[in-house]
Amino acid sequence: MSDETDQIEGEQVARKTPYERLGGREVIVAITNRFYDLMEADPAYAALRAMHAADLGPMRESLAGFLTGWSGGPRDWFASGKCMMSMHRGLPIARETADQWAAAMARAIADVAPADKVMADAMAGVLEEIAGSMVPVEAPVAASAD
Ligand code: HEM
């Protein structure tokens, strides 16, 4: 069996990317829009909303582009030279704010409800991990010499 195929019920089938399994561009855009709608409307995400610019339009475009390439779809966002982790490195992201990001994203994915629930849950889980990894780690306090 090659790396690009799976064995399902004795059949050799082409392995799909997460992007394809989720439903492609349409579903990615729907998840992104739902995510920013929730961020704008629900006070539970107020701290997260406050960190973003007044106009979320450019973010809707950008996050959808990132998630498209990241999940195995067209890589235009990455081809433009952007790096999502470097863009966040300087931000003072508190644990609570990272939790708000992950909660809003999990809710957006659940609301859009991609038919492939295994992949949808995997996406929510991995994005939660990434959001958590953006909380800056406090510099360790140097041990006192005395
Ligand atoms: C951990 C909590 C997070 C916080 C507080 C946060 C905050 C922000 C902020 C403040 C911006 C700039 C917004 C603006 O200029 O209006 C931004 C942009 C962005 N964020 Fe996050 N973010 C978080 C997590 C994530 C995660 C986990 C991802 C993707 C997996 C992500 C993807 C993006 C993208 C693609 C942009 C747009 C970058 C651009 O084109 O300029 N963010 N984020």
UniProtKB/TrEMBL annotation:
Keyword set, alphabetical order: Heme, Iron, Metal-binding, Transport
Keyword Thylakoid in annotation: no
InterPro entries on file: Globin-like_sf, Globin/Proto, Hemoglobin_trunc
Transmembrane segments: none
Name under which the protein is recorded: Globin
Source species: Novosphingobium humi
Keyword Heme (UniProt): yes
Top-rank taxon: Bacteria
